[in-house]
Amino acid sequence: MKITLSDTQLLSPQQIGELASNLDAIHARVLKAIERLNKDVAAKKTEIASRWKNAPGVGAGELARFAQNETLAAVRQIRDNSKAELDALLKQAGAPHAQLIAQKPFYDSPAKVLARAALGDPKRTEYLQQLQHAGPAELGHMAQVAVGTRNVALASAVLSLIDRLPTKDRPVGPVELATAMKQDEFLKVQEYIKLGDARLQGILVTIRAWNAGKANPISSIQLAMRERDIDHELIGGGDE
């Protein structure tokens, strides 16, 4: 199988978590900005309504029309004035999200993570030497031992040896073995990426709703489903 090499730097789960946290913080700032802007709109509507309420010499129908026209213009002005601030926040979110997504090729399979988990560990080298002549049955048993003892070095060595076998002779698949190891490094990164994706989508949905003057129900439902799919307990903290 041929692959295309890139110069993307491999980040640690902690670094990836920091990118997700950055997006989470920017998302919170967007929500606060929209909350402030909505208060500005409400205050302006109240001010205009109060000013036109008892204007002398003007009929009720005209009063309502004048108030409505002024309100629309005022709200439009507030939206126009907010564009630079919201565009800047969206731009700030773009960079960490791009870095986050660039890590997917390194973490899109638990087998990849397990394969590099114990690189440089003398125990992995020792296991490889001890098991280099092992057959499928022994490798299968060692895979079970690795899973049962959470021995990452052993699992990584067994994975390497299993990967050399013809598919039909493998006692367990590489992905199956890696999945059974339940590696925090793999599992947490999946949730960090989900969190980062959800926060960027939340920023987009919130800004679009503000610009349109109303929320899109479908977008809101999709965003809620993304949020529900994140295991906050695994990565620590909840939706803030």
UniProtKB/TrEMBL annotation:
UniProt name for this protein: Uncharacterized protein
Species this chain originates from: Xanthomonas graminis pv. poae
